[in-house]
Specification:
The chain is mainly alpha-helical and 137 residues long. It has six helices and no strands. Helix 2 crosses helix 3.
Length: 137
C-alpha cells in the first residue's frame, strides 16, 4: 500500500516573524500576535531573536578589519584606549602593608626626618614615660 502524502502546511520561521514585527512592540505583544497567527513563541525567543538581529546588523555595518577608524572622539590620533596619563599612585612600602600602618608610618617617617633624630628620640622617651606612669597608676 503506497504511503499518502500529508497535506503540507506552510512552515513558519519564528525568527523571521519576530524580525518582521516593529521593534517598538513589546515582547509580550509579539507573543500574542504570534499566537493569533498560530505560531508558538516565548518571550525569551523574542528577546533572543531581536538580540541576534542587532548583533548581525552591527557586524554588517562595521568597517572591514584593518580599516582604521577615523575621528575617534576624545582621543589623540595613534593613542590606544586605556588609563588617562597622569601621575602614578605611590607604591605602598612592604613593611607598611604587612603591619597595617600604611599612611601613618609614612607620616611618622616624614616627621622624624623633619624634626631630626635626637628631637624624635627625646619625644619618644617622653611618650614612654607617660605610658609607664599611666599603666602603673
Amino acid at each position: 500500500m503506497p504511503k499518502t502524502k500529508k497535506a503540507t502546511t506552510k512552515s513558519v520561521n519564528k525568527s523571521a516573524f519576530i524580525r518582521s514585527q516593529p521593534a517598538t512592540l513589546s515582547a509580550a505583544d509579539v507573543v500574542k500576535k504570534g499566537k493569533a497567527e498560530g505560531i508558538k513563541l516565548s518571550i525569551a525567543q523574542v528577546y533572543t531573536a531581536r538580540a541576534n538581529a542587532r548583533r548581525q546588523a552591527a557586524k554588517t555595518s562595521a568597517p572591514a578589519q584593518g580599516t582604521p577608524v577615523q575621528g575617534t572622539p576624545g582621543r589623540k590620533p595613534g593613542r590606544k584606549p586605556g588609563r588617562k596619563p597622569g601621575p602614578k599612585p605611590a607604591a605602598q612600602a612592604p613593611q607598611a602593608a604587612a603591619t597595617g600602618g600604611g599612611n601613618h608610618e609614612t607620616h611618622f617617617m616624614a616627621l622624624v626626618l623633619d624634626l631630626g633624630l635626637s628631637k624624635t628620640e627625646a619625644l619618644l622617651e617622653r611618650v614612654r614615660t607617660k605610658l609607664r606612669s599611666s599603666l602603673l597608676g
